[in-house]
Amino acid sequence: MEGLKRNVVIMDFSGIYQNEQFYEGEQISWIDLSDISGTNCYCDGDAQAQILERMEKYPVSGIYFMDSGNYHYMSRIRAAKITEPFRLLVFDHHTDMQLPAFGGLLSCGGWIAAALEELPMLKEVILIGPDQSAFDQVEKGLQERVRFLSREILLDMDETETEAFLMSVSKDLPIYISVDKDVLCTEDAATIWSQGDMAFRALARYLNVIMKEQNVLTLDICGECDPDCLEHNDRNEYVNRELLNMWKEWRKDYEK
Predict the structure, then answer these.
(1) Which residues, other chains included, contact 171 with Cβ-Cβ below 8 Å and sequence gap of 6+?
(2) How far is residue 243's CA from residue 249's CA, in Å, rounded to a whole number?
(3) CA neighbours within 13 Å on the CB side: how many for 256?
(4) Are 223 and 68 in contact (CB under 8 A)?
């Protein structure tokens, strides 16, 4: 799997990445998905088929930048390609476990629930960042398959305690990491959804713990801003660049 970890993939739905430069000088794969209708927040069957066709040659491994939180359901689509038991670790300000409002359509607000219900290889979800009140609204059967760390509990924990929580995750299965930048405070990111209060410095520290301790299958990042609201996009540029550099350093250590 060493060579596959070199993948740096840009998934362009909205055109936002054309306004960013964090990937300049890198060997990247650019997947233009902007012409596919039926993708914004919800992904219908025709759209999913077209996306899968364009992604066919790309493995799960690597780092994927997946546009705004409106397209976080791409994590569910990508995870379906995993053929071995795995865990999913998600940093997000929202639970993304709402049941679909429209006839089973895959959505950015329900993709984790869909993954738990539909992917037999997914054995556990670790969800960090949403409000406790939001998690309380999730169906009990789904809650039981999730290790949850709420925004409120995180505020009461110091970083060492949070690291201990992450260190307690069993190493018996490989792990898929998904980051929505809306988990971050508004000083460190600018997204199209409501945001949490985690500092990027803390998120980077937590990711370093996981990358050192776990067999990480892949990392994906969403949470870009609206292309029409670029005045604060330098924050997202910084986070994307730092996460890409972290991935490259981890990959270098992994391949030694």
Answers:
(1) 213, 214, 215
(2) 10
(3) 6
(4) yes
Instruction: Using alpha carbons, select from 154, 116, 110, 150 the residue that is nearest to residue 134.
Output: 150
Q: List phi, psi (to 5°) of 42.
A: -110, 150
Contact 48, 77 (CB under 8 A): yes
Q: According to the model, what pLDDT value does residue 99 have?
A: 79
Alpha-carbon distance of 238 to 96, in angstroms, equals 25
Q: How many residues does the chain have?
A: 256
Over residues 1-51, the pLDDT tens digits come to 334 445 899 999 999 999 999 999 999 999 999 999 999 999 999 999 999
Residue pair 11/65 in contact by the 8 Å Cβ criterion: yes
Q: Please give the helix or strand (H or E) that residue 217 lies within, else none.
A: strand 216-222
What mean pLDDT is predicted for residues 166-192?
Answer: 97
pLDDT tens profile 144-158: 999 999 999 999 999
Classify each residue of 47-60 as buried b or exposed e, where b means 16 or more C-beta atoms within 10 Å of its C-beta.
Answer: bbebbeeebeebbb
**Interval 35-49: pLDDT, tens:** 999 999 999 999 999
- CB of 88 within 8 A of CB of 121? no
Q: What is the pTM assigned to this prediction?
A: 0.95
List of residues 6+ apart from 236 with CB closer than 8 A = 20, 181, 189, 190, 191, 223, 224, 225
